[in-house]
Amino acid sequence: MDALDILTNLDRIVPYYQPIFSADEQRVIGYEVLGRFLEEKEAISLGSFFRDEQIPDEYKVEVDSLLLEKALSGVINFESDSKLFINRSAEQLMYDNGEPFLEQLLKFEKKGYRLNRIVLEISDGHYNGDYHQLVHLLTYYRTYGIQIAVAKKDFDNSTMDLIGLLEPNILKINLSSLRSTATSIAFQDIMFTLSLLARKIGATLLFENIETSYQLQFAWSNGGRYYQGYYLGKPSEHFIEENSLKNRLKEEFHGFILLEKKKLQAIYTTEETFHFKVQSLIAKYKKTGYEELFHLLMKEMEKIAFRMYVCDEDGFQLSANFSKIPVIGWVTQKEYIKKNWSWRPYFLENIIEMRNEKRGILSDPYSDIETGEQIRTFSFPINANEFLFIDISSHYLYEQEGLV
C-alpha cells in the first residue's frame, strides 16, 4: 500500500480497538487504538506506514492525529472506565516538542474525557534524540494523569536502561516469539529480569500477541496483570461488553492455578526428600574431610547431582568442587577453593534462612554459568559456618514433573 494513497485518502483512515483484559477482574480494562485503512471491504493495517523510515515524521503525525481525533470522538460517550492505549514513537512524540498531542487531549478533556484514562505507549524503535528531553516531556504529561507504557519486542541492555530512565507505569511484552512450549532458557531469564525490574519501579506487566492458551498461561505465571492478543480478542471498530470473557478467563485461570499448585507441591516434596536424604548422610559423616562427605552423597545422588561444594557463611568456598564430567566421571577441582559466591542473587539471604530454619533449600531454576543448562541448587546447613551446595542436573529436573 503506497503512502501517497493514505495521505490523499485520509477519510478512509479509521481507528480499530483491540481489547486488553485484566487478571484480577477478568474483564476488559482498556483498548489499544490501531490504525486501519479501508480499501473496498478490507481494513488494512497502517503498521507498515508508521514503521517506514522513509516517510517524514510530519506525515505520520498527521495520520496519528487524525486517528486519535476519531478514536476519542468514538470513545468519549462510551460508558466505561476503560483506558485508551495510544501508540507513539519517541520521534513522533517529540515532534514540535510534544505540544500538539497534549493540546488534542486537552480539547477532549474540556468535553468531559478524563485524561487518567489515557495510556501513552512508547512503541518499539530506536530514538536518536535527547532522552532527558523525552523524560521531561513524559513527566509533564504525567501531571495530567496520563500513564506511560513502554512497548518493546526485543529486550536488551539498552532497553533495560531505557526502562530505568522512563520508569513507565506499564511494561508491554511481546509474546510473538513464544509460539510453542519450547521456551528458550534465555527468554525465561529475560522474563525473570523484567519481572524484577517491573517490581522495583512499580510497573505493571502487559503481555501482547497472545495467540494460544499456552501463551496466556506463560503470561499469567510470569506476573502478567494485563493480556492482549487474538486469543482473547481481535481488533475491531466496535467495543465489546467488558465482562464478555469473564467466565472463560475464570475457568482458564483456575486451570493455571491447579497446575501451579501441583508444581509447587512437587517442589516442596522434592525439597523435603533432599533434606532428609542429606540430613541422614550428614549424620554418618565423620568429618575426616570433604572428600568423605562427597563420596557419601555421590552414592545416594549419582543420578541427581552433577556438582557439590561447601562454602562458609560469607560465601567463601571451603572445599574443592566435586564435579561429574561427561565420559570422565567424578573429579575433584581444587582451583575453586577460596572463591567467593556472595555476589550471587539471594546467596546471603539463603544462608541466613538455612541457618535460622536449620533446613535445606531448593533454589528456583536458573542457567548454570559453566554449562548453560537449566538447573536448580539444593543447599543444606552442615553447621553454623559450613553450608553444602548440591547442583541438580537438568536431566533429572526434566524427568521429574513440575521441577522446570
In short:
The protein is of the alpha/beta class and 404 residues long.
Per-chain topology:
Elements: H1 3-7, E1 13-22, E2 28-39, E3 42-45, H2 47-51, H3 57-75, E4 83-88, H4 90-93, H5 99-109, E5 118-122, H6 131-142, E6 147-152, H7 157-166, E7 170-174, H8 185-201, E8 204-208, H9 213-221, E9 224-227, H10 246-284, H11 290-300, E10 305-311, E11 321-325, E12 329-333, H12 347-357, E13 361-362, E14 366-367, E15 374-381, E16 387-392, H13 394-399
Helix pairs in contact: 3-5, 9-10, 10-11
Textual characterization of the structure:
With 404 residues, this protein is α/β, with parallel strands linked by helices. The model has no long low-confidence stretch (mean pLDDT 90). The protein is 39% helix and 23% strand. The strands form two sheets. It has an eight-stranded mixed beta barrel, surrounded by five helices. Strands 10, 11, 12, 13, 14, 15 and 16 form a seven-stranded antiparallel beta sheet that branches. The chain has helices at 3-7, 47-51, 57-75, 90-93, 99-109, 131-142, 157-166, 185-201, 213-221, 246-284, 290-300, 347-357, 394-399; strands at residues 13-22, 28-39, 42-45, 83-88, 118-122, 147-152, 170-174, 204-208, 224-227, 305-311, 321-325, 329-333, 361-362, 366-367, 374-381, 387-392.
